[in-house]
Design brief:
This protein has about 575 residues and is an alpha+beta fold. Among the domains are: about 100 residues, Winged helix-like DNA-binding domain superfamily/Winged helix DNA-binding domain (Arc Repressor Mutant, subunit A, Orthogonal Bundle); about 140 residues, TolB, N-terminal domain (Rossmann fold); about 100 residues, no CATH class. Helices cover about 55% and strands about 10% of the residues. Strands 8, 9, 10, 11, 12 and 13 form a six-stranded mixed β-sheet that branches. A hairpin with a 4-residue loop joins strand 2 and strand 3. Helix 10 packs antiparallel against helix 11, helix 12 runs parallel beside helix 14 and helix 19 packs antiparallel against helix 20. The two termini are about 40 Å apart.
């Protein structure tokens, strides 16, 4: 290993490239926040690193985090990894109300370097949100939409050559005022693309500039004046200019075709704006606008693909009975693929339908692989392919795909939680706990991460901790049927059967107002040892086409059912 990528102190070695802490031949688990704290202190040994500096380094502006609590917890985990004592420190000294200082001497050959990019990419690029200079907040969707299109087109055109960091991570730096070097370090990127959009009537003025993060040098700036109908072509021009600057040859056959109808394109951008709202908050509006775009331009492949994906996401979020959402999505996704066989999002939508609706795991895998081949920077394709592989028991491959998704979208809560679930399915509960805590450092009480954290703690015989996490989440998010079911399972496993039955009754009462997924209720009955009720719920889950059925073969919480012949029949029915 090249010494320039290592930081050494006493018997420890911090590898900046692999982001690992080692002591001798042993690798010490270190989460993202403790790693960054240690790295920042090692860059300035003996200097005071203020709490404000650490907060800016660890959590971009706009991140909703209890900084005091989260920073204290991260420093505590760092000290635990180093075997340090806050009262008698050997490595990390606390300066009350000011910050921290690294007090141990560094090795003489230690030096700092920028993180290693993925070996199959020539460079890594982040696209920052384009500023809306129109003076009209209602036009925010247009600048956001152009930024989103830039992500999609760069990922598609520069496949395998440039790694494009996903929107949800880049978006956290909107208006942050951070220097390019800082953003590059946090996202581990070599270049930033930033710009602005000014729209006046049917004319659009788009400014774009490419910045090298290490040197903060502006490699170029271009201004594009277009009619609204031609604005989509700017993405292709900017992508080609980036490729020329980075000496990357783009694929000529992957030319970008703008929408035939300017009104359809604007409506599509509005759909993308609502699609990108946190969680499932924008799904109804996204569906409305995508449907309008498809009606205005029936040959608009991207609008069809994203409409199908919104319906499949409704199944994933349990907004309705999954089967109904998936059956609605199927013909729309097939139409998108007919219109553009080279559209990664269309393959992603079809792959999810193969997996969730048809239980055709082979076709689903081919779909995910095709989506990745067309756009290696699609964090969604890597995330879903990793989940599919985990359900099929191919855990080593699944972990690799989850790792790639996190490289492409390091600050995304959903991507991080999916990675934790894949680690859970692989039986690596300790890593799952670490990953969940990393997600919860970014957003405390994020219910999906809390559920996986509680389940992993339960598998490690730390039931009291797991239940405490789930109870806190349930109090913060009342009426969540999945969380209530998982908590009922945990309570039952600990012997609190009366409480578990009360929680099941609470989920039953929710059915009048919303869809309650039967698979998770089945899990609660497993905890109670009620096999007949569990199998009845699992049979109903099959009719509902619950997306989580894929995980049934490998989820250790269903182990009590495995000796029952009905479980084997169920796996045969699922093709697992």
């Amino acid at each position: 290993m090249d010494a320039e990528h290592l930081l050494r102190f006493e018997s420890f070695e911090l590898d900046v490239r692999s982001r690992e802490l080692r002591k001798g031949k042993s690798r010490i688990r270190l989460q993202e926040q403790p790693f960054e704290i240690l790295r920042l202190m090692l860059e300035r040994p003996g200097d005071v690193v203020t709490r404000e500096e650490l907060a800016r380094r660890l959590w971009p502006q706009g991140t909703f985090v209890d900084f005091e609590h989260s920073l204290n917890a991260a420093v505590k985990r760092l000290r635990a990894a180093l075997g340090d004592d806050a009262d008698n420190p050997k490595y990390v000294e606390t300066l009350p109300r000011r910050g921290y200082r690294f007090i141990a001497p560094l090795g003489q050959d230690a030096a700092i370097a920028f993180p290693l990019m993925a070996p199959d990419f020539k460079a890594r690029l982040a696209v920052l949100p384009f500023a809306n200079l129109s003076g009209d907040p209602t036009q925010e969707y247009f600048s956001d939409g152009l930024t989103e299109e830039m992500f999609l087109q760069l990922g598609r055109l520069a496949r395998g050559r440039i790694g494009v960091i996903s929107r949800s991570s880049s978006n956290l730096f909107r208006g942050s005022g951070r220097r390019a070097r800082e953003i590059g370090e946090l996202l581990r990127t070599d270049y930033l693309l930033e710009g602005s959009v000014r729209r006046e009537g049917d004319r659009v003025r788009i400014t774009a500039q490419l910045v090298e993060t290490a040197s903060e040098a502006h490699l170029w700036t271009d201004v594009y004046e277009r009619n609204l109908t031609d604005s989509l072509s700017v993405q292709a021009e900017v992508a080609a200019r980036i490729a020329q600057s980075l000496a990357v040859e783009l694929l000529p056959e992957q030319s970008v075709q703008p929408a035939h109808d300017a009104a359809a394109y604007q409506t599509y951008l509005k759909g993308r704006y609502y699609w990108n709202l946190p969680g499932d908050a924008g799904f109804p509006q996204a569906i409305t606008f995508f449907e309008q775009a498809c009606a205005a331009d029936p040959t608009f492949a991207a609008a069809h693909a994203d409409l199908a994906r919104t319906h499949t996401a409704q199944a994933e979020y349990y907004n309705m009975v999954p089967r109904a959402a998936l059956e609605t999505a199927q013909p729309i996704a097939e139409r998108a693929l007919q219109l553009d066989p080279h559209l990664a999002h269309a393959h992603l939508a079809i792959a999810n339908i193969h997996a969730m609706l048809r239980w055709d795991w082979k076709a689903a895998e081919e779909g995910f692989k095709q989506a990745i081949a067309l756009n290696p920077s699609s964090d969604g394709a890597h995330r879903w392919y990793g989940l599919l592989l985990a359900g099929m028991g191919r855990c080593e491959e699944a972990v690799r795909e989850a790792r790639r998704a996190r490289e492409l979208d390091p600050l995304c809560l959903v991507v991080g939680t999916s990675a934790a679930w894949i680690q859970f399915m692989a039986g690596d509960y300790e890593s799952a706990i670490d990953t969940c805590r990393n997600v919860l450092d970014m957003k405390p009480q994020f219910p999906p991460a809390t559920r996986v954290l509680g389940a992993a703690l339960l598998q490690m015989d730390r039931a009291a901790e797991g239940i405490a996490e789930m109870e806190a989440a349930a109090a913060n998010k009342p009426g969540n049927p999945v969380l209530l079911s998982w908590l009922a399972h945990a309570k039952a496993m600990r012997g609190e059967c009366g409480v578990a039955r009360t929680l099941i009754q609470a989920t039953d009462r929710l059915r009048a107002d919303r869809f309650v997924p039967s698979l998770h209720v089945a899990l609660a009955h497993v905890g109670l040892g009620e096999a007949d009720e569990a199998f009845a719920m699992l049979d109903r889950a099959c009719e509902e086409r619950d997306p989580m059925l894929l995980m049934l073969a490998g989820d250790p919480r269903f182990d009590p059912l495995r000796r029952d012949v009905r479980f084997a029949r169920l796996l045969v029915r699922l093709g697992l």
